[in-house]
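A.,

Following up on our hallway conversation. Structure tokens first:
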């Protein structure tokens, strides 16, 4: 599989996100991952800003508290 470099709308996907980073197809998505900051669009697993909340990788973790 080739690493994606752009979201479908043309914005660049941050390079340190994994190759398994893809559009979410269920309720599980970055936006409700325990390691994601909705305010900053920031992924705490990969220390990456500008992450879309409706995408997902294989390191998704359930959020146990409401943000």
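Then the amino acids I'd put at each of the 67 positions:
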């Amino acid at each position: 599989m080739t690493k994606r470099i752009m979201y479908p709308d043309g914005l660049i996907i941050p390079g340190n996100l994994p190759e398994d980073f893809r559009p979410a197809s269920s309720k599980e998505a970055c936006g409700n991952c325990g390691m994601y900051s909705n305010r900053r669009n920031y992924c705490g697993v990969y220390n990456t800003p500008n992450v879309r909340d409706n995408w997902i990788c294989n390191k998704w973790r359930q959020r146990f508290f409401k943000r």
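Residues 22 and 55 are 5 Å apart (CA to CA). Curious whether your intuition agrees with the design.

B.
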